Automatic annotation (TrEMBL):
This is Glycoside hydrolase family 5 domain-containing protein. Keywords: Membrane, Transmembrane, Transmembrane helix. InterPro entries: GH (IPR017853). The chain crosses the membrane at residues 7-28. Gene3D superfamilies: Glycosidases.
Amino acid sequence: MNIIFKILIILAVIALGLGVLVFCYFFVGKAQEAENITWGVDFSQMQAQSLKLNWKNVYLAILDDLGAKNIKLHTQWDWVEGDPPSPKASDGQEKHNYYFDDIDWQLAQAKKNGAEIIYVVGMKSGRWPECHIPEWASNLSEQQQKDAILSYMEEVILRYKDNEEITYWQVENEPLFKFGECPSWYYNNTNFLKQEVALVKSLDPSRKVIVSDSGEGSMWFDAAKIGDTVGTTMYREAWAHISDSFGFYFHYFFSPVYYSRKALIIKKLFRKDVICIEFQAEPWASKPFYDVPLSEQYKTMDLKRFKDNIEYAKKTGFDTFYFWGVEWWYWMKTKQNQPEIWNEAKLLFQ
């Protein structure tokens, strides 16, 4: 009995020691600040319109007034292919009904202004409900949905692969993180994600493919295995949605070095770079912004938090950040007469 007790004590000490080492690795120390940092923004036409903004005015202001030269476009399958394919013709082929006018315009404006684009393609492309499935495809079988997604992606890549302003393809948006309203099969395994990435690379081998994952809830291993570059989120304040009537705010207590040490592991094991493609710069509230008073929004984002987040980001050692929330900045500036965050961001881009 004494021997068993001693063994248990030894194992407990070893486990405690390993725990201390892991804690120190991820939470103790400092990362070297990058000499040159690229600042960009995420843009969602849907988000701009949900704030009752003229989305073209928002986009032009990002380029002309804000001065951003790096934009991640969150395009949506349900907006590009809102209508179902036409019945098969005599040759047995379906005719897909695509609407690319808005994206054509966004890319043309980016090129005109010398901006570079990360193009998000796939079913889960960001902003609630995350998976943007056309109504006509919502009741298809799993295989039919997969085939439809691949057809859509192929059309996108073939249409835009010669656009020099596109520097990366991003396949899906956090496809490994269980968040959003997505088909039941979506998170079963990584096989379909691998198929999507393989399709994109076969159609356009000239560009790297980003696969993104949660910065707070993942070690990024699967993203690094599948993609050429790992994209990560970086959030400081969040709302935990328990039910429609209950939830709470919480703060992520990760130190900046937590991100840099994880990125170092990815670099050592997979020879892949990690960039932040979703850096919190808007509130995370219990409801959409237009249904929440400013006093509530300020609990998770205001000018002070914005400045603090920028300093936090610099301490991670990363050299690339895409702000999540530019539509909200513009809404605050034009609808709420609160231009402070927009003006503060301009200092980074100009």
